[in-house]
Known about the structure:
The chain is globular. By secondary structure, it is α/β, with parallel strands linked by helices. The model has no long low-confidence stretch (mean pLDDT 93). It has one domain (3-253): Alpha/Beta hydrolase fold, catalytic domain (Rossmann fold, 3-Layer(aba) Sandwich). Helix 1 (35-42) crosses helix 11 (237-253), helix 2 (65-79) packs across helix 3 (91-102) and helix 5 (133-142) crosses helix 6 (152-162). The protein contains 11 helices and 8 strands.
Amino acid sequence: MSTLTNDGTFEYLTEGTGTPIVFLHGLMGTLSNFEHQLNYFSQRGYEVTVPLLPLYSMPLATTSVKSLTKFVKKFIDKMGYDKVYFVGNSLGGHIALLFQKMYPERVAGLVLAGSSGLYESAMGSSYPRRGDRNYIAEKVRDVFAVKEVATEELIDQVFETVNDRMKAIKTLAISKSAIRHNMAEDIKTFDVPVCLVWGKQDAVTPPEVADKFHELLPNSELNWIDNCGHAAMMEHPEEFNAIVDQWLQSVKGA
């Protein structure tokens, strides 16, 4: 069973022992996004950790992708990890890419699912405007091809975020920062192994974004999941886990 730890600086879930895998959630994400991965990988010789990113608790002036990346660096230092595998969804993928640029010696490999970092409107245009709950619910459901993933609880969470003025401002600040930190030039030089897992029906970071990542990242493999939107690890956890598991074994074997 995963334990939730909150030491005042970091809040995170951790489970298992072995090779460290750090899961990074997206802009509207939360720890529960990776519940299926915690259980699965912790039983396969990995120490699985999901930190809560301080999207709304950083000072507005330093609310950026770079600050979030530095936060993750402090987190893995605190955990005593030397080298880690990152699995990032959406903004989490972008942070993982920037981490590879800033601290390449600490990264064993990257798994990117619906990652931002290339596609400029990946986050800006998908940010739900304030409005009534039905409108927000529709926007949240649009993110997923498997509509059941958009639970009432998730819709409530997004609705609360977009109607909280400071959270809305910080969300926008992160979106703008993500657009400024386009990774197209940087990733051509990355020699780290990368596994791309993409939903064929991803409307936030469409399939052509995955193709572009695959083209630019020298050491990448691209995996598609059908009937899947922007959050493969939630929409098709078994298929997602099998792809990532196989890739990890091949990378570790190499």
